[in-house]
Each structure stands twice: as structure tokens, then as C-alpha cells.
Amino acid sequence: xxxxxxxxxxxxxxxxPLSFLNPGKTLLAGCDLQGGGTWLGITAGLxxxxxxxxxxxxxxxxxxxxxxxxxxxxxxxxxxxxxFMQSLATRASRYNGFNLILGDAEELLYYSNKDGxxxxxxxxxxxxxxxxxxxxxxxxxxxxxxxxxxxVETDKIDSMHLLNLLEDNLxxxxxxxxxxxxxxxxERLLSPIFINSPAYGTRxxxxxxxxxxxxxxxxxxxxxxxxxGSIIPQVVQLTLND
Length: 242
Fold this sequence. Notes:
globular, 19% helix, four-stranded antiparallel beta sheet, seven-stranded antiparallel beta sheet
């Protein structure tokens, strides 16, 4: 499995970089210091979780619980992915819109509380932004296009090279942009794979690889902004063995 992901967030939101989140050093993830939980994580036992917001600002509730707690509940538990997803579906309406990918050693699953139904993901290429899985947004299509050659035309995955792909800042034309209720200026700002603005943008980029032997590598590039607005990258790479 190879995951290439950007985390886009308000720059003022406090965040801890990639680290082991448990004393036994078997859980790797970033940590959202405001809402708690995480947005992307994996364990030595091959429990994997990733979440994105579903962009629909008019439907968001300020009293909804943090979606990051969903991931921590799975990553620190022992329920398999299928049973966890089925249980989550019964209470998913408590949360603002989300897309969730969960996996264990047996299967990889997708679920959105805006779509309903748990979907099994067979081997293939998938793209996810802030709509449903594989929605044909320009950034989703471009991300899959950029990733594919580095999956099928090489014998070894180069995590640092994939991090460079996540810095792609191509802005698609206005006529290809989705209408998610945030206005044209925000649709433009949010349209590239890599987002850069004074208040909101790509905070970190991550590559997770899992070999057939169960060796896990998690590489995260934190993108710190200086007082002048320049980006200062800091790269952390940690590994886990199943």
C-alpha cells in the first residue's frame, strides 16, 4: 500500500508533528492539538486510518464532535475495520461531513456519512479530496495521474520523490472547479494539490508505504511558515515492523 496525502488546514490551528502516540511506540500519527485525534495514522499491526472533511459549509454544526476522534478510536482499539465501520454508521450523523478510509491486515474500506454504505476497496488507484471518493475534481484526477507512473513503472517506491509530487500547485481553469458553497475565490484557492495562502494552506505532506513483508515507513514533511511567509520544510521519517 502507498498513501500520498496533503493535510490542508488553517495555519493558526495548533498541530503536533508525526510521532509515536503511545508508550509502546506502535502507533504513528500526527496530532491535532485543538480538536484532539488525528487525520492520518497507522499501527504496527497494520491498522490504517485516514479522514477528510466533506466540504459543505452550510451544513456544518459548531457543536459537532471532532472527527479526529473516530480515527483514534479505531487505531487504539481491537475491532476489525468492517465491524468498526458498521458501528460507526449508526452514529455518523453526530459528525460534520466526512470521508473515512480504514484498513487492517485483511481489507481496506471507505465510508462517508454523506453517501451511506461501506465500500470495500480492491487493489487499485484511488483519489480523495473533500467530496466523495474518486469525485472527478481536477486535483483528484491530477493526483492519480501523477502518482501512477511512480507505482507501475518502478521497482522501488521513492518517498521523497512522492513528496515532491504533493507540491504540485497547478490551478485548473474556473470552468472545471466544483461549486461547494464557498465562493469562486475560495474554490480557486483550494483547487491545486498544494495550497498556499496567508491564512490557510497545506500544513504537511505525508507518504505511507507498506511492503508485502509488513514493513511500514511513514514520512512526513511539515511545512512551517516564517514571519515573511516563506515555507520552511521539516522532514521526519519513522518506521514500524509488523
